[in-house]
Design brief:
Strand content: 15-25%
Protein name: DUF5819 family protein
Distance between the termini: 40 Å
Largest sheet: 6 strands, antiparallel
Radius of gyration: 19 Å
Number of strands: 6
Helix content: 25-40%
Structural class: alpha+beta
InterPro entries: DUF5819
Shape: globular
Length: about 170
């Protein structure tokens, strides 16, 4: 994708519908925009037991799985580094704080995020489940010290935890 021009500005919505989220590109290589928050995305699953009761799993830290995959790879892929994080950012942008999909794009982003999480849990757990829930913990990254040294505490090191609704998924099994 090229930098903005008159044609891309005019057709950006139609172009984005085809290109995003799978083929997103940007020019941050040349002008990086550092993250101001860290987001830890975790997932848990549910299945219905034979007696009809819900069986919940514990939380699995999907972000930690991504970090480990990048840290232990000589040549980590862009996908391993950014897929989950970018899916969350797009979901949040299209849903705000109410988790309701009001547009086709929002529904697509919800499905994309849900499918990434479900596939990763299925690969990690090897157990049956038919619903998934995500939890996103957002922590601010403190600004650097004015003298260029290490980050300094700002007194605002709080974090925010957001629980997404339970989503049905195609039953995943061993």
């Amino acid at each position: 994708m090229a930098p903005p021009n008159s044609i891309s500005k005019r057709y950006t919505e139609k172009i984005d519908a085809w290109v995003l989220p799978l083929f997103e590109q940007n020019w941050q290589l040349f002008a990086p925009n550092p993250e101001s928050v860290n987001q830890q995305i975790s997932a848990r699953t549910a299945r219905t037991a034979k007696d009809g009761t819900a069986v919940l799993s514990g939380w699995v830290d999907l972000s930690a799985m991504d970090t480990a995959a990048v840290r232990h790879s000589v040549f980590p892929s862009h996908t391993a580094q950014n897929m989950l994080r970018r899916a969350w950012i797009s979901y949040e942008r299209h849903h705000g704080g109410n988790d309701r999909s009001h547009t086709d794009r929002a529904r697509m982003m919800k499905e994309y995020l849900r499918n990434i999480a479900a596939d990763r849990i299925a690969a990690h757990r090897h157990s049956t489940f038919d619903s998934i829930q995500l939890r996103v913990v957002t922590k601010r990254i403190p600004p650097p010290a004015p003298d260029g040294g290490a980050s300094r505490p700002t007194g605002r090191e709080s974090h925010e935890t957001r629980y997404l609704p339970w989503w049905k998924v195609a039953t995943h099994a061993d």
